[in-house]
Amino acid sequence: DAASDGTAVCVGPGVWQENLTINTDGVRLFGAGSGATVIEPEVPTSDPQTSDTAIIQVGASDVILSGMSLRGGEFGLELLPGSETTLIDMEMRTNQIGIKGTNVGSLAANGLYLVRNTNTGAIFEGGGENNPIVNISSLEVIGNGGADGAAVGGLHSELPLDLYGALFKDNSGVSTADLYAGGGIVAQNLRVDMPFSSSITPRVSMLGDIILDSATFSLKDGGVELDCLGGELEVINMAVSNSLPTPVERTLTVNECSGVIYHATFARLGGPLQGTAVEFTGEGEVTIANTAFINFVESSDVSETVIAESSNFAGELAEAQLIMPLSSLPNLRPQSDSPLIDAGEDLNVALDITGWERPRGSAPDIGAFER
Length: 371
Known about the structure:
about 375 residues, 17-stranded parallel beta sheet, 31 strands, 1 helix
């Protein structure tokens, strides 16, 4: 309450029970680290589902929150309309909703952990045509939501997302489990790990312009939905795998998109040929190149979309000759005798999905991984 613009408040290690409202511009609130400084509601409850408070509420500009864990509230962090907030090393754990942002002015984060929030890890709501881009680096979204709870368990954003280094795992929602990006997305080093439990709910739903560079999706029933709404699609270095005996009927669905899919690996790991790798619907034009379709009955199912293909591979798992496709931690990189080796064309993609230089031989390898 006494802080003025530019004041820094430092909070030591421990568990602090306080509800904070920050309405002064320029305030900085520094904890001792997300694993050391914990803030709970002033009147904590044994079950966050019964809480009706936001632990920290921000309604100001140029606010920095750093090095804290917010737990046990209705909202860990509530960002009010017009607020401008930067988050550094912040954890939202066991709240109903980790972060709720409504018509924010700006939001950026570096080191954000959304863990076991009972409804949704984070919700970002928009309110107009010129919504700000939410920029997040080093994001982990783990164990949020429930199959009979909120529409989206992990991260639900109606604002454009710019993600760098994001991990999603074991989130559950009624309509989308891990990630719903309703305002478009640019993502680099995006990973959706195999969930603990099986569900037909889509793991990821992305709408608007979609740009993915180095994305890994390990599926257990629910697939990945991309709907560009007539906009841009750019996918470079993507690996999508399903290791269950029962296949995902359509691993990836692409609707009303125009653009490219370069250096992707679609792999059904184990069993006979089953299912379809990619279903294209709606109008659009997509070029697919240097892409491997492994162990599917059909590489693609196409209706109105115009598809151009070059230097792709379609075949059985044994034929593809991957390093360790059937291990508990599959390695989908091709063996030295794989037909994927040096079989692609130069698409000016300098690195593979793991950061290895491309090409390492006479030509680029087909798929997301370079040998």
